[in-house]
Each structure stands twice: as C-alpha cells, then as structure tokens.
C-alpha cells in the first residue's frame, strides 16, 4: 500500500449515514474525507470543485442516482475524474452492472465494516477493482455475455442532451415551473427557458405536455 493520503468525497442522500461513514474513516490512516453531498447537483458541483481521489457513491438517490453523478462528473472532468466506488444497500445485479458500466471502479454493500471500507477505498485509489462477495460474478457475466441484464438501448435523442438539459428535463417531468427550476438549479428563468427550448428541439417534441409523456416513457423524472 502507498503512503499517500487519499482524499475522499461522500455521496449519499441520508445525512446520518454520511456522518457515520465520516466517523468510520476519520481514524483510518491515509484517508481524508474532504466533502460530502446528498443530491446529484450538489454532488457533481462538490466533486468538480474539490477534485477528490475517490468518491464513495450511493446508487439510489433522487434525480438519477449514482449513475447521474458519475456521468455529470465525467462530462465535466473527463480523464481527470476521480475513481468511483459504489457503496449501496442494493446488491441487485441490475444496479451493480449499470453502475460499473457507467464507470465505477468497484461496488460494495453497506453491510461492509469500517476497516473493510477503508481498505476498499485505498485499493480502488491504487487501481484495483473491488467488489463485495458474489457481486464480481455479476460483472464477469456481463462482460462475457452471460448476464441476464440487457445492454442499455441506444437513445440518440436522449444522448444528445447536455447534463444541464437533462437536469431541466427531469424537473419539467416532475411538474416544476420554470421559476421553480431556476430556484432549484440556481440559474435564471431565462436560462431555464433556453434549456427547455433546446430540450424540445432535440427530443422533437412540440410542447411541454408531449415532452412530459416522452420523459415518462423513458422513466425520466
């Protein structure tokens, strides 16, 4: 193991759990928790600003979950993005494979103890792939073509949207007004209108009602 101190960022929508992980890692040599967040936009912004070495990533959160955080950070930082280690209550194959396909380096469940978690953080920081027992089998099956989880279908219209346009789309699908979206994302109403116009054009929808139906059909929201 390296003598380097690895900087860690925590992503989880439960504040009590984040506090517990902070406490568990505080006494571990070579690890420093530099920040945490409980939703997708704050997580992406915090990671981009603080540039940690490792992100401990919850899988299920409002607004797209861990995959949305992964994609947002990767869009912003590219090859400079940190290493992601999923830390989830779920051990479902669909969650494991989707998160690894999105770019996570490992996946452990929340039954892990503090010492094991610290070791997992160090290992992914140093280039290893780390999984809780039996979860590695899901990933191996996926890459050898034996996984029951299908590859995600290509959706050119959805893939054409920027990260910010996706955020606006999700809030539109939930019924937010332009003003409420502006307040949620800390941008102007005019900027929201511009993003919404771009979303309508790229998805080839004629109005907001049609866009909402389009988003619901794709389980966006």
Note the main attributes of this structure.
six-stranded parallel beta sheet, Sig_transdc_resp-reg_receiver, 6 strands, single chain, alpha/beta, DNA binding, 11 helices, Arc Repressor Mutant, subunit A, Rossmann fold, 221 residues
Description:
This is Regulatory protein LuxR. Residues 154-219 form the HTH luxR-type domain. Pfam families: GerE, Response_reg. The protein is an alpha/beta fold and 221 residues long. The chain folds into 2 domains: 6-144, Response regulator (Rossmann fold), CATH 3.40.50.2300; 156-218, Arc Repressor Mutant, subunit A. The protein is built from 11 helices and 6 strands. Strands 2-1-3-4-5-6 form a 6-stranded parallel beta sheet, sandwiched between helices. The longest helix has 15 residues, at 189-203. The model has no long low-confidence stretch (mean pLDDT 84).
In short:
Keywords: DNA-binding, Phosphoprotein. By secondary structure, the chain is α/β, with parallel strands linked by helices. It is about 50% helix and about 15% strand.
Task: Quickly give the structural class.
Answer: alpha/beta
Q: Strands of the biggest beta sheet: in what spatial order?
A: 2-1-3-4-5-6
Annotated CATH homologous superfamily of the largest domain: Response regulator
Query: How many H/I helical runs?
Result: 11
CATH class of the largest domain: Alpha Beta
Roughly how many Å apart are the termini?
42 Å
């Amino acid at each position: 193991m390296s003598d380097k101190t690895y900087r860690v960022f925590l992503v989880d929508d439960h504040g009590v759990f984040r506090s517990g992980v902070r406490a568990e890692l505080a006494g571990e040599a070579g690890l420093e928790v530099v920040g945490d967040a409980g939703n997708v936009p704050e997580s992406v912004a915090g990671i981009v600003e603080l540039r940690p070495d490792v992100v401990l990533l919850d899988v299920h959160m409002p607004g797209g979950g861990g995959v949305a955080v992964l994609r947002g950070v990767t869009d912003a930082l590219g090859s400079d993005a940190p290493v992601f280690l999923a830390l989830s209550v779920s051990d479902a194959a669909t969650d494991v494979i989707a998160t690894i396909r999105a770019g996570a380096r490992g996946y452990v469940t929340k039954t892990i103890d503090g010492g094991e978690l610290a070791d997992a953080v160090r290992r992914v920081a140093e280039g290893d792939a780390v999984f809780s027992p039996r979860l590695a089998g899901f990933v191996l099956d996926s890459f050898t073509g034996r996984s029951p989880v299908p590859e995600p279908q290509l959706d050119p219209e959805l893939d054409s949207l920027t990260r910010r346009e996706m955020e606006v789309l999700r809030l539109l699908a939930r019924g937010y007004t332009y003003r409420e979206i502006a307040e949620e994302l800390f941008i102007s109403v005019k900027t929201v209108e511009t993003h919404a116009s771009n979303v309508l054009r790229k998805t080839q929808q004629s109005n907001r009602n049609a866009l909402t139906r389009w988003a619901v059909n794709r389980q966006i929201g």
